[in-house]
Specification:
By secondary structure, the protein is α+β, with helices and mostly antiparallel strands. It has 4 helices and 13 strands. It is elongated.
């Protein structure tokens, strides 16, 4: 249920309000899908400082390392603190993103906050001239446990773990190449392989491996693709 309200802004009083950055919502929105009857696949899950989303194939989590302090956001009078997890439908996220300025000298205007007005949970944005308040349907709060689909990391000494750092431009270029090579309706799947530095000479295969790299391979209807991505050097 979406309800838009335009009004002036007033300063927030005390109490914790869940403030969400525009960048977190914008990053999570593409990882939702309307092509499924499961509600949580067409919504993002917000908890204090964290936004999560999944489309059933990819799951993302955005964590705010420097959340805004209480009272930073100009909010709707009568809105109370709300810090419980909430699923915000993609439609509401899209509407909130459109209402927020893409650029502003006031960083707080590039955020939205989740509050509670009576029994209703709301998502509010403002540009200091007008505000938009969206009422969120909280009937369905089911969302996958992110920890269950996340592999154990290197902090667990019983699990071998490898990390690769890639530039965003490298990934964007790879996606452009993959999409451009698609000639039919069937979307190709991509296989990622990480090669590691080996001995100066691999006698069994009569080749030398001198650098680690991430290899991407995909098979389309007419074209096969192969790419090598060099990890960033720190």
């Amino acid at each position: 249920m979406l309800t838009g309200i335009a009004a002036g802004a007033s300063l927030c009083g005390g109490g914790y309000i869940m403030i969400i950055r525009r960048a977190s919502l914008a990053a999570a929105l593409p990882v939702t899908t309307a092509n499924d009857t499961r509600y949580f696949l067409n919504a993002v899950r917000c908890t204090p400082g964290v936004v999560e989303a999944t489309n059933g194939h990819l799951a993302v989590r955005m964590t705010d390392r420097a959340p805004f302090a209480d009272g930073d956001f100009p909010i709707v009078p009568g809105t109370e603190s709300h810090a419980a997890p909430v699923l915000i439908p993609a439609e509401a996220v899209t509407s909130a993103l459109k209402a927020m300025p893409k650029k502003s000298t006031l960083a707080i205007l590039q955020t939205a906050f989740v509050g509670k007005a009576g029994e209703a949970v709301t998502l509010t944005t403002t540009d200091l001239q007008a505000r938009q308040t969206i009422t969120i349907d909280t009937a369905d709060r089911t969302f996958p446990d992110f920890a269950r689909v996340t592999p154990k990391m290197a902090t667990d000494t019983t699990v071998d773990c490898l990390s690769v750092k890639l530039g965003v431009e490298v990934l964007e270029t790879l996606l452009k190449a993959l999409k451009a090579s698609q000639t039919g309706q069937r979307q190709p799947t991509v296989t990622l392989t990480l090669t590691l530095p080996a001995a100066p000479k691999d006698e069994a295969n009569h080749k030398r491996v001198t650098e680690d790299a991430l290899i991407a391979e995909w098979r389309g209807e007419d074209i096969d693709g192969f790419a090598v991505m060099m990890p960033c050097r720190m």
